[in-house]
Each structure stands twice: as C-alpha cells, then as structure tokens.
Amino acid sequence: MRIVIAEDDALLREGLALLLRAESLEVVATADDPGTFLDAVDAGEPDVAIVDVRMPPTHTDEGIKAAVEARRRRPGLAVLVLSAYVEQAFATDLLAQGSARLGYLLKERVGRVEEFLDALHRVARGGTAIDPEVVAQLLARTRPDDRLRRLSPRERDVLALMAEGLGNAAIAERLVVTDGAVHKHIRSIFAKLDLPPTDRADRRVAAVLHYLDDARRRA
Predict the structure, then answer these.
(1) What is the DSSP string of 78-92?
(2) If you average pLDDT over every residue of the chain, what do you get?
(3) What are the b/e assignments for 159-171, b being 16+ CB within 10 Å?
(4) Do residues 79 and 70 touch, judged by C-beta distance below 8 A?
(5) Secondary element (H or E) of residue 74
(6) Both ends of the chain: CA-CA distance in Å?
(7) Residue ranges of the HTH luxR-type domain (predicted)?
(8) CATH 3.40.50.2300: which residues of the chain?
(9) Running along the chain, 219 residues long, what does each successive block of 10 average in pLDDT?
(10) Architecture category of domain 2-130 in CATH
(11) What pTM value is reported for the model?
C-alpha cells in the first residue's frame, strides 16, 4: 500500500509516517500544504491519501478541496480525512460524490492505533470509515419528527454502525446478535426510511448519510 500524508502539524505528520512504516506500509511522500500534496499525488501514484481538513493558507477547507481534487486527478484513490473535531458540513460535502474508498476520522482516533489502522485498511479495500462521533452528531441533529422516529432503539443502533461503514458480520459482533438478526434489522431500516435495501456496504452507507444530510438541511 502506497500512502501520501498531507498534514501541516509536523509532529502529527511525522508520527503518522513512523507509525505506518512500522506497520510495513510504504509512505511515498508527506506534505504540509495542498499544493505539495497534489504534486505528491501526481508523482507518487499512491493508493491512499491521508489528509487534514484544515491546511494553509487559511486553515479552513483547503484539505477537503485538495482531497476532492486528488480524487479527480487519480480516480480510485482512497482518501482518509482527519479533523480535529466534527465538521459536519465538510463531512457531508466530501461524501456528496459517493462514499466508496473514503474515510472521515477525528484526529483523536489516530491515538487508538488499532482503530485507525482498521479504518485505513477498510478504505484502501474500497470501503468506508466514518468516525462514530460524526455519525452520532448527524443522528442527534435530525429533526425529532423525521422518519428516524419510525426506527426502534435497536434499529437506530444498527443504523449508526452502518453509517460508520461496518458490514453485517461486524455489526453482529458489536451488538452480540446473529447475522440473521442484523439482516432483518437492515431490511426494516431501509423500508422505514423509504430507501432500497442493498448488501453493498458502500452504497448503503452513502444512502444513510445522504438521508441524514437531507434531514440536517431541513432542520
């Protein structure tokens, strides 16, 4: 796996590089600004880019814009975005074109090495990894009278784990239920939300996030 890191905090940038190299992953370049990052994507032909949301010069959305441009230049590039705190609009904007090979994590998750590496490998394989805190805030900010009220407490638990990018087996393990029970809950969730059911994790996560974003915009 070839990786490019775009992070303007030198300590975090070098720490990430050391961590990944210790895991026998190839860090082909590191960058501290969007321009250098995009040059590295062009030259290094990475499989995955790890990108900070806020980068120079304004430290607003340069990282998000660079990530979108990197995916345009290199179709199929997996992107794992890091943010210091939940920036809901940035998360949904980045996901607007689809969620395959895409992750959005809080930086504090990097300190939980096993979780961070799991997310990295998941997006590299074509999946999705959304920070649980992002999912929780999206759920919390929807209107109380929207379609989410149709869901049972267990279905809401399953929905949150789906939005994180977990597959059926992982959800079953997390909730200590059978795969069959998870499949039944998912069918019910999609029926109640008026969304077509599917077994493809990336498509169902995208559907959930688009629905939640629509609810956020209406709130």
Answers:
(1) EEEEEESS--HHHHH
(2) 82
(3) bbbbbbbbbbebb
(4) yes
(5) none
(6) 41
(7) 144-215
(8) 2-130
(9) 95 94 96 96 95 89 89 91 75 63 86 90 88 70 60 87 84 93 88 63 59 55
(10) 3-Layer(aba) Sandwich (3.40)
(11) 0.69
